[in-house]
Every structure is written in structure tokens, then in C-alpha cells.
Design goal:
Shape: elongated
Order of helices and strands: EHEHEHEEEEEEHEHEHEEEEEEEH
CATH architecture of the largest domain: 3-Layer(bba) Sandwich
Radius of gyration: 21 Å
CATH class of the largest domain: Alpha Beta
Number of domains: 2
Distance between the termini: 23 Å
Structural class: alpha/beta
Number of helices: 7
């Protein structure tokens, strides 16, 4: 997408989706955010920043950290802080930090950021982005406007839900959307994986190493790579339910099972389970930017090796992008890469 002279703008739908939050924000994290907001300055409408970061998950926060350390004037705009991390039960694959809750890890990210006193706005979302004389103007839902030489989109993604009874109330009580994150919590227990793509098959294979039994439930034929399906066939603690859908997740205070339905016969069957890993994909929070930057068939923002989008001066990082690996440490690294590239870009623009 080429850069147009004069003014270029993007009208954004008022959906909150670019910074959609997942349920389960911890009380301790919310208190921390309130205290931080009271202590630190907000964004300055009279100032032109070097970088405005939209979103505050691992990618956005790490990008802000690296940018301010490079001497850039940085601001953050986000609906909430922490992204999907804060809704993860246990994180045990972030180097140097073992067995930490997602909300506590988010707190640690914020504490690191706080030491630099980066201006930020919380509970705000962007409704308009336009470019005037090589400066981006970002307008919020309350009509406030902020100016910046570059933009980083780090709005993350949200997991696709089944939309069945029992799902919402049992999130973090046996229902998970990240088997890599939460699977080890079910050591020696029976679990189900819902889905038929690469992520679902990989999850079933990984889980089989430490759970007692995995039931793989999918409504049609598998879409995963052949090599993964060949590995799947070798598992001896796997049940496959092809042509089935989940009708209900059963349990009161925790997952106790699932009711599945055979799409051919209409008959239902109850499974006894301790955990349900829903691996049917993620929806990137990119729809508000689709008219400005290039997106792929999955609505992910396309970026190059420097996290640059198709629009000069706009970068993207984290789960909203075409990066195939959706992990906390990968998103954080992408934020760092983006800031280093932005610093280089701004130096060339001077």
C-alpha cells in the first residue's frame, strides 16, 4: 500500500474489538492499574510523540520499554493492560520466571514499564487514524486527539469460542484456550481437545505425554499436516471423535465433563473430563485497521522481518500479526524488534 500525499485517514468501527478483553481480570491487577494511573501523567494532546503504541499486551509493553530506552518519546493507548497473559492460569515457559500466574506476570511487566514513567491511557480505544504532513493523528472515542511520527499496532487476538452452555462460567476452571499454557495442570487426568487443525493436533500430541487420556473432538475431517496426523495415529492414550460437536460443558465449580453430539445420528454422549482445551483458532483484533494496512486471509496484519506493515510508519507486533507462533515470549520479542526498527526508521527520517 503506497503512502498518499496530504491527508490519509481510516474510519474505525466503534466495536472495542481492537482492544477487546477476556474475562477474569484479577482484582490485584486492577488495583495496581488504578494506583499507576493516579501516579503517572496521561498523554499530552499538544505534543508530537515519536511512537504511539496501541495495545498493551506483551508486544505493546515491551515495544514501549525498548523505545523509551532508545530515547524515543513514547505513549501507550489501550483498553486494558496485560492482554491474554493476564487470563492465563499458569505461565511456566517464560525464561527465568517459573510457575507464575498470568496476572502476576502482567504486573511484573507493568512494574518494569512504570520505572520509565511512560505516559499512558487506559480504558480508551481508537476511532480514527489519519496522516497529516507525515504525522499520524490518532483520535479516541472521547474525541481526544494525539499526534505521533509512528504507530505500533499491538492489539492482540481473542480466542474463538464454542458458544456452548457451561463454557463461559468454567473458563480457568478447566476450560482453556491454550494447551501449551495450561495443559501441564492436568497431569495424569483425562482431557479433551476440541478442533481439527494443526494447533489442535499438536495439542493432543503434546498432552498425551503427561495426561492419562486425550479425547480429540472435531466436527469434520482433520485439516492438519500429514506428518502431524501420522504422529497422532501412533498414540495409545487417544480417543478420536470425528463428526462430533460439543453440545455442553458440564460442571459446577470446575469442569467435570462434556456432552458431545454425533452429527450423523444426532445421538449424544457424555465424556468424563477434568480439562477441555478449545483449539479452534484465534481472531486477530485487526478489523479496525484493515482499510489502512494489508491483512492476510486470516485477518492478521502482514508484517515484514522488521515488523513493518504495508503503510510506511505503521508497525505491528504480537498476535494481531501474521507471525505464526502465538506465544508470550514471541510477542514480547516482536515488540522489541518493532521498536528497534522504528528507531532506525525515525533516524532516517530526520
Amino acid at each position: 500500500m503506497s503512502q498518499m500525499a496530504g491527508e490519509r485517514k481510516m474510519e474505525l468501527k466503534n466495536t472495542n474489538a481492537s482492544s477487546a478483553s477476556m474475562p477474569g481480570l484479577s482484582f490485584s491487577l486492577d488495583l495496581a492499574l488504578m494506583e499507576i494511573e493516579a501516579e503517572y501523567e496521561l498523554l499530552d494532546e499538544e505534543k508530537t510523540y515519536d511512537l504511539l503504541v496501541i495495545g498493551a499486551g506483551p508486544a505493546g509493553m515491551n515495544a514501549a520499554l525498548f523505545a523509551v530506552r532508545k530515547g524515543l518519546q513514547v505513549g501507550i493507548i489501550a483498553k486494558n493492560f496485560g492482554g491474554q497473559v493476564k487470563d492465563t492460569t499458569i505461565v511456566d515457559n517464560y525464561l527465568g520466571i517459573m510457575n507464575i500466574s498470568g496476572s502476576e506476570l502482567s504486573n511484573r511487566f507493568r512494574e518494569h514499564l512504570d520505572s520509565f514513567k511512560i505516559p499512558m491511557l487506559r480504558e480508551r480505544y481508537v476511532t480514527l487514524i489519519k496522516q497529516e504532513n507525515n504525522v499520524f493523528v490518532v483520535e479516541l472515542e472521547n474525541q481526544q486527539k494525539y499526534r505521533s511520527r509512528t504507530i505500533l499496532i499491538a492489539t492482540g487476538a481473542r480466542p474463538r469460542k464454542l458458544g456452548v452452555p457451561g463454557e463461559a462460567k468454567l473458563i480457568h476452571k478447566g476450560v482453556s484456550y491454550c494447551s501449551i499454557c495450561d495443559g501441564p495442570l492436568f497431569y495424569g487426568q483425562e482431557v479433551a481437545v476440541i478442533g481439527g487443525g494443526d494447533c489442535a493436533i499438536e495439542s493432543a500430541i503434546d498432552l498425551s505425554r503427561y495426561v492419562s487420556r486425550v479425547t480429540l473432538v472435531h466436527r469434520s475431517t482433520f485439516r492438519a499436516e500429514k506428518i502431524l496426523l501420522e504422529r497422532l495415529e501412533k498414540l495409545d492414550n487417544l480417543d478420536v471423535k470425528l463428526g462430533y460437536v460439543v453440545e455442553e460443558i458440564i460442571g459446577d465449580k470446575k469442569v467435570e465433563g462434556a456432552r458431545i453430539k454425533n452429527l450423523s445420528t444426532g445421538e449424544t454422549e457424555d465424556l468424563t473430563l477434568s480439562g477441555i482445551m478449545i483449539e479452534i483458532g484465534y481472531t486477530p483484533n485487526s478489523q479496525d485497521f484493515a482499510d489502512l494496512v494489508e491483512t492476510n486471509q486470516w485477518a492478521e496484519i502482514v508484517v515484514n522481518e522488521k515488523q513493518a506493515t504495508s503503510f510506511p510508519g505503521i508497525y505491528a507486533a504480537g498476535d494481531v500479526t501474521s507471525e505464526p507462533t502465538k506465544q508470550i515470549i514471541v510477542a514480547a520479542a516482536a515488540g522489541a524488534k518493532a521498536s528497534l526498527a522504528i528507531s532506525e526508521y525515525l533516524n532516517k527520517e530526520k
